[in-house]
Write a structure and sequence with these properties.
This protein is of the alpha+beta class. The protein has 4 helices and 7 strands, in the order E-E-E-E-H-E-E-E-H-H-H.
Length: about 150
């Protein structure tokens, strides 16, 4: 079974927790998803999530807590998906996949309206349930980033 890390990029701005979604490359319509990709043989899942957020969404981040794990069947076969919060510290103007994907920040409520896949909605619900602790960590990451300590 393929091991997949899924990054749930978050930030706290204007008194609101937001998640960053990207468009799927494979979808014919504009389908929003979280950055995700295979976990390397000697790579920790949370590190893979940080890497995928950088490659697919052009954000630098620090790893956060595990949210959920689930098994999903797709065109590529069965995958074990592991979802991790990543705290965004910097948004790059250009990134590897900028010509293949769009990125957009959403409130949790708005993200729930556009996410279509059940496992993505389940991860978003996990963020909602841990809202307070995630907000504290997102604020701390933003402060450290502003101070140049990351």
């Amino acid at each position: 079974m393929r091991q997949v890390a899924v990054a749930v990029p978050v930030r706290y701005v204007h008194e609101q927790l937001q998640v960053l979604l990207i468009t799927s490359r494979r979808s014919r319509e504009e389908e929003y998803i979280f950055p995700k990709g295979g976990i390397g043989k000697k790579e920790a899942p949370e590190s893979a999530g940080v890497r995928e957020a950088h490659e697919e969404a052009g954000v630098k981040s620090i790893p956060g807590e595990h949210l959920i794990s689930c098994d999903v069947d797709s065109r590529r076969g069965a995958s074990r998906m592991q979802f991790y919060v990543v705290y965004v510290t910097e948004e790059e103007a250009t990134w590897d996949e900028q010509h293949q994907r769009a990125r957009r920040w959403f409130s949790l409520e708005d993200a729930a309206e556009v996410l279509q896949r059940p496992e993505l909605l389940e991860a978003l619900t996990a963020v909602s349930h841990r809202h307070e602790s995630i907000v504290l960590q997102a604020r701390r990451a933003a402060q450290l980033s502003a101070l140049g300590r990351l």
